[in-house]
């Protein structure tokens, strides 16, 4: 028989110090949810500290893409600055090249290492860098007589 546990969130402060930041982060992260599926993307965990975000950007030129980090958010923009060549008549236009903004919430210790485009896929490499102050440390015990 499996035992179910409930979490009494209003009283979590009695035994969990500093977890209020987690709820603040969840609230901030929920604000980055995007209602569109364009452009499609992947998030890949390569190791305990390395991640890749892949975004399909086929049809965008170098000057039409922008990647930046602002206030712990990775913002990827694509702005199609080209117009259809004059006299072009499409019988079917299924290749999307519309403008987009895709936002990803980042943990405070996640750093963007690189952004590259290959074969129509923009790959953003991220690394979770653990600061020395957050790493485990031994505390010396002093015995007094």
Write the layout of secondary structure elements.
Elements: H1 20-30, E1 41-45, E2 50-56, E3 65-70, E4 73-78, E5 100-105, E6 110-118, E7 121-128
Antiparallel strand pairs: 1-2, 2-7, 3-4, 4-5, 6-7
Structural write-up:
The chain has 145 residues and is mostly beta strands. It has a domain at 37-134: Sandwich (Immunoglobulin-like), CATH 2.60.40. It has one helix and seven strands, in the order αβββββββ. It has one helix at 20-30, and strands spanning 41-45, 50-56, 65-70, 73-78, 100-105, 110-118, 121-128. A four-stranded antiparallel sheet has the order 1-2-7-6, with no helix packed on it. Strands 3-4-5 form a three-stranded antiparallel sheet, with no helix packed on it. The longest helix is centred in the N-terminal third of the chain and has 11 residues, at 20-30. The chain starts with 19 loop residues before the first helix and ends in a 17-residue tail after the last strand. The mean pLDDT is 84.
Q: Give start-end ranges of low-pLDDT stretches.
A: none
CATH topology of the domain at 37-134: Immunoglobulin-like
What's the alpha carbon Rg, rounded to whole Å? Answer: 22 Å
CATH class category of the domain at 37-134: Mainly Beta
N- to C-terminal separation?
52 Å
Order of helices and strands: HEEEEEEE
Q: Any idea what the CATH architecture of the domain at 37-134 is?
A: Sandwich
Largest sheet properties: 4 strands, antiparallel
In which range does the helix fraction lie?
Answer: under 10%
Structural class, by secondary structure, is mainly beta
Shape: elongated
Whole-number mean pLDDT = 84
Number of helices: 1
Give the strand line-up of the largest sheet.
1-2-7-6
